[in-house]
Amino acid sequence: MAARVGVVVFPGTNCEHDVAAALALLGAAPELFWHGLGDLGGVDAVVVPGGFAHGDYLRPGALARFSPVMGAVARFAADGGPVVGICNGFQVLTEAGLLPGALQKNRGLRFMCVPTVVTVASNRSVLTSGVEVGTELVLPLNNFDGSYVCAPSTLEELVAEDRVVLRYRDNPNGSLDDIAGICNREGNVVGLMPHPERASSALLGSADGLVLLRSLLSLPVA
Question: What is the pLDDT of residues 26-82, one digit of tens each?
């Protein structure tokens, strides 16, 4: 039976159909969930996709955290359900307190729309459990507030607990410790700035994103 994956949609989200298409390509059954809904209907996993939730007013993700669906996402995560936030979704997860730290403006105050190389730094998360540590993946970046920051004590915890999931090879945006993605202590909530769904075919320049999405769906890595 195909895994049901809830894809959260806020006003301003623009990557929900890209995520749904990539998941469907792997045999999953994606379902779009409007931010006003307070129930996830028994899905197997949740993705909070990229875009500009609520126009990024105040700061990215600051308003989205109050949407009813985020209460459902928090409960799902607390019960051990797999949750992945991509780009703006990562920002939403930090604002909602499901992941530590924050995303600030890129080094040089530039919007970035480039492919980047990331290295899998940990395989103790739902997004990397089937991927060998050290694997390099080419994934696109598309953000302005993508530089990860956190308190020194938080960074110590992330490193000590093996919660840095992905690191940039060349750190294009100035992220602390080259961080491109992190997970919570349990490994079931992951946030990353690069877009795996936009690297789902060689026609798009890379199919490396499927490596991560297969792991999310607990499929063997090809």
Answer: 999 999 999 999 999 999 999 999 999 999 888 889 999 999 999 999 999 999 999
* CATH architecture for segment(s) 4-216: 3-Layer(aba) Sandwich (3.40)
> What string of DSSP letters covers the chain?
-PPEEEEEE-TTB--HHHHHHHHHHTT-EEEEEETT----TT-SEEEE--B-GGGG-SSTTTTGGGSHHHHHHHHHHHTT--EEEETHHHHHHHHTTSSSSEEEPPTTS--EEEEEEEEE----STTTTTS-TT-EEEEEEEESS-EEE--HHHHHHHHHTT-EEEEESS-SS--GGGEEEEE-TTS-EEEESS-GGG-SBGGGTB-THHHHHHHHTTPPP-
pLDDT digit string, tens, across residues 162-174: 999 999 999 999 9
Q: Name the more confident of 56 and 209.
A: 209
Task: Indicate the domain borders of the chain.
Answer: 4-216
CB 166 within 8 A of CB 192: yes
Q: Which residues are catalytic?
A: 87, 195, 197
